[in-house]
Amino acid sequence: MGSSGRPMLREVRGTVEPTSIAIVGASTRFDTQTAEVVRADVPVWLVHPTRTEAFGQPVFPSLAALPEVPDLVEIKVGHRTVLEVMTQALDLGVRSFVVTGLGAESGPEGPPIVAQLAQALAGHDDFAAGGLVQGAQQVQERAVAGAAGAND
Asked: Which of 34, 37, 93, 123 has its CA 20 to 30 A from that of 58?
């Protein structure tokens, strides 16, 4: 909490105006959103462990293989892999995320994964998370609450 008693605002520039983006789980299958991001005016790196090319761009096997640490990581992997990818990104210094795989498709496995993500993020007071599904909002709310409790 800040001195005013309100939660401290986090830097969100990397989320709303990233200078570079990595898309983990990039695939040309049913993915018009990735095709749009690839055309952005910033470096966009695609990451997939088994693909070598997508949308006319090379694909890197991991976040660690990228030429630099991206401002924003979009996590487009199955719900069972989201925590692993986010942990790798946090370890590299990434603090801005978009998570797209924690909605209804994760079924009863979703809530425990959301709790694990929140726990992973609670140790970092400088992250910004967004998402295209409700699960990402729950991660952010839980992590913010955990970080606020740790600062009490």
From this structure: 93
Tell me: the pLDDT tens digits for 85-129? 988 998 998 888 888 766 666 778 778 888 888 787 777 666 555
For β-strands 96-99 and 44-47, DSSP reports them as unpaired
Sheet order of strands, 128-131 included: 53-54, 57-60, 44-47, 21-24, 72-75, 96-99, 128-131
**Side-chain half-sphere CA neighbours of 18 within 13 A:** 24
Hey, what amino acid is at 25?
Answer: G
pTM beyond 0.85: the answer is no
